[in-house]
Design goal:
Helix content is about 80%, strand content about 0%. The protein has 14 helices and no strands. The longest helix has 27 residues. The termini are far apart.
Length: about 260
């Protein structure tokens, strides 16, 4: 028995020595990680300027330096989404998840992507996994994303949607995305007063978008309030004359 214990100790010590990195190797690893981070930062800057080809080069270079650097994969996923390559984007998200599967923010971002390509069931699973993580710092974001995503799906569960959106607003009362989703929920459930109220709240904390104005226009149209209907319609046409929502407005009956 004693010989067996001595043999085990020798084997373990030998494996530790074999796995130990030299100071030179550790320094190279540190520099490679730093280079990966710098390349991701540079890529983000290029993406903001619209130079997407150079951004992709920087991100691939980051992975060459450190193939375990999750931000490189997630930023590549965002870039692929921007250039309408959803298959490549999903692959990069999956690679990131292989490395950082416990990161709740990563699951939330992946869920948002899945929702954008209409994979609602898979997106819901990602948001719910995010919310199960007790260390996630912004659960209101996942609640709002989940509520909005469920609203887009076929045969939506309106009670579940409202529950998640209200949780989001309870955690952050001035959250624009949750307010606008509540307004859309009002339209979906023929609760036009709710739709009006939440678009008004949205516009009190966030700049109007073509979409937010279109939501309010439909609410005012349904409520039969011609004064507000014409006022918001004019605002949409003045501020977003080339938008899809402006085209939809011109086709709305009973103008």
């Amino acid at each position: 028995m004693m010989r067996m214990k001595l043999w085990l100790i020798v084997v373990l010590l030998g494996s530790l020595v074999a796995c130990a990195s030299t100071p030179k190797e550790l320094e190279k690893e540190r520099k490679d990680k730093e280079a990966a981070e710098i390349n991701v930062q540079l890529a983000s800057g290029y993406m903001r300027r619209g130079d997407l080809e150079v951004a992709e080069e920087k991100l691939l270079k980051a992975i060459e330096y450190n193939n375990k650097h999750v931000p490189a994969y997630t930023t590549l996923a965002v870039l692929m989404t921007m250039i309408n390559k959803p298959v490549e984007a999903e692959n990069y998200y999956l690679e990131a998840l292989d490395i950082g599967s416990r990161d709740p923010e990563l699951h939330n971002n992946y869920g948002t992507f899945l929702c954008s390509i209409k994979k609602y069931k898979e997106a819901t699973e990602q948001f719910e996994q995010t919310l199960r993580n007790q260390f996630y710092q912004t659960p209101e974001v996942a609640h709002a994303n989940l509520g909005y995503c469920l609203l887009q799906a076929e045969n939506p569960d309106y009670k579940k949607i409202e529950r998640h959106l209200r949780k989001a607003l309870k955690l952050r009362s001035n959250m624009p995305s949750a307010m606008l989703a509540m307004a859309e929920l009002g339209l979906a459930t023929d609760n036009y007063l709710m739709a009006r109220a939440y678009t008004q709240r949205f516009h009190s904390v966030s700049a109007a978008t073509a979409h937010s104005l279109w939501v309010q226009i439909r609410a005012e149209h349904a409520l039969g309030d011609k004064v507000y209907f014409l006022k918001i319609s004019k605002k949409l046409l003045d501020q977003f004359p080339e938008s899809e929502e402006a085209d939809k407005l011109m086709g709305l009956s009973n103008l």
